[in-house]
Amino acid sequence: MNQVPLSHILFVSTALFFIGIYGLFSRRNLVCMLMAVELILNSVNINFVAFNKYLYPDRLDGFFFVVFIITIAAAEAAVAIAIIINLYRNHRSIDVEDATNMKF
Amino acid sequence: MHYADYILLIPLLPLAAFLLLGLAGRNRLRKSAGLIASVLMLVSCTLALYAAWRYFFVDGLVDGVYRQIVPVRYNWLIFSPGLSVDMGILLDPISVMMLVVVTFVSLMVHIFSLGYMKGEERFTTYYAFLSLFTFSMLGLVAASNILETYIFWELVGLSSYLLIGFYYDRPAAVSAAKKAFIVTRFADLGFLIGILILAFQAGTLDFNTLIARLTDAGSPQFAGITAASFLGISLLGWALGLVFIGGAGKSAMFPLHIWLPDAMEGPTPVSALIHAATMVVAGVYLVARLFPVFSMDPPVLQIVTWVGALSAAFAAIVACTQTDIKKVLAFSTMSQIGYMMFALGVARQGGEAGLGYTASLFHLFTHAFFKSLLFLCAGSIIHVVHSNELKEMGGLRKRMPFTHIAFLIGCLAIAGIPPFSGFFSKEEILLAAWRSNALVYGIGLVVSAITAFYMFRLYFSIFWHESRIPDRNDGSHSAGEALSSPEGGLEGSPGMKFSLVVLSAGALLAGLVPFSRFIVPDERPHDSHTPLSFSILPVSLALGAILLAGWLYRRGNDRAEKLKIGLGRLYQVVYQKFYIDEAYIFITKKIVFPLVGRPAAWVDKHIIDGLMNGLALIVAKVAWLIRGIQSGRLQQYMLYFFAGAFGLVLLFVYYFNHLHT
Q1: Interface TM-score (ipTM) > 0.90
Q2: Is some CB atom of chain B closer than 8 A to the CB atom of A25?
Q3: What is the distance in angstroms between the Cα of A2 and the nearest Cα belonging to chain B?
Q4: Domain boundaries defined on chain A
Q5: Which of A25, A102, A103 lies closest to B635 in CB terms?
């Protein structure tokens, strides 16, 4: 089978990463920012899977990492959503620009 | 039973009592606190007596030498291989003897206090402190390691402080407690430096190893400590001298004695326990513990001798003029400890030369009985009269026949009249002094006569001297009230009487113990005899002094007053305790405070604090400058973060390229 070269996959994951970064910087809505973070995490996941597949096909460490990251991302999303909901209850807004209470 | 099975219980039971009463007892055990502490103390005392019996009569003596047993040892702090602080128990003749003395006197004081402190607001606290003290003292005497001794030494100082200041609403008690703590703490500094020198030179903190290394003239450690010198005195001399300063502070030796008379502000049973029988002899015990090392350095023993003799004479003279009965007893304690000290000082290692050592500890043993007896009697008297002043007493013979007999026994014992216990130990001390130093013997002899005089001055003034009674008894309502104690009759509860009886028996019989068969410096027991003819002079002097005291104080007359006026200025000087306290105040207020304290305070305030304040100021300024970064904008933070991460990546890429090309 004619395999996709590794560099193509890495290109996809890098693109995904910077899309995530862009979203993180450009959005003011916390939910959108959360989604951007998920993108970044997934780009990392792709990297792990790809390197594992191409460089060490007989080992499984990379896959384990991916499974961990997915689990932690789920937990993180739950926590972040909880924080966002609390923020909304206190400020009636989920715009990061409004959450400046901790400023010196 | 093996020692290890129960020996730890002896100190730990009082500790348990302290924890129980101190933590939980405030409200719940209000009534039973004394009983709990006394019962635990009884168990502890029984175990100590059992251990002593086992040690002295069953398995302590091997081939004519008392062996040292370490039944319990726990490695606590390890500084380096070979230098560690162990928590252990060392059994040898003196520590076993002290265990018995401490637990026994403590038990008697516990029982006595049941009656004496009844109705006291802080009854539970009192017993908690008493138990803490007993625990610390037992730890001190049984310690197997010199630093362990030091730890318990400080604990003893702390519990003494707590007990002296027990009546904390009295300003005098508070300042007395502080004085005792500061003076002994000051002396303990010497002890600590001494320990450090000894430990550094000997390379160990363990008593057995330390003594073994520093008494073997061929060992490298001994060579090291004697070769090194500072200001022309060998390090051994310095170390032992400093250790002795610690001991002198605790034992109230001249000139560090100033705290002892003031310490009488504490409850009287406490004075009996701490400031008569146990804590104040810790200094003697310390010198005895390290005696083999002390005997390697005769000049230090000379210091011990002279400090002891001077304290004995000084305290005896001052005691003749004091009018507070507890202060007289305090000075008498100091004088008797002076005896023990100079007896240690004239002793040398081996055979007959070790007589002073035996005599000193013998006197410690008998003194514990008769002095705590005297203090407890004083407690009974104060309980009835509600005053410490001799002026308020007189003619109590008929009111308190029981206390009268007990007090008389104590006085006869301390005066050295045969066959009371003090006679035997004092004769041994005088004999030891006679054999080594005639001048010290002379001082001892005179002091023994003065002792008899002031003790019987006390006795006659309290129990005879009728003339003072009528004006106290007739009119004044408060006197009548004071003289009718609510329960147990005039002389206190059965517990108080019981302690007096037991201690009187001790004061009568303790002298019959053949001490040289148990306690000698080289652990080789033998029989010793004091020639009968030797006793004639001291005893007749003491009898003469008693007669003199009787002539002056037995009946109301103006002879004592005339004598006082005749002595004039001299009497005043003695009455003011030779102005030693004033000298201390002069030195601290006029010399130490302005010349040392003020400059030190200035340095602290301006340089050290200034440094700290300056640093804080700089930090605050810088923080003010860079606080703009903390904008509170999440995305700005992320920008910093990613810029940083990106920068690092660039750095790594550049670095790796650089490395590989």
Answers
A1: no
A2: yes
A3: 32
A4: 6-100
A5: A25
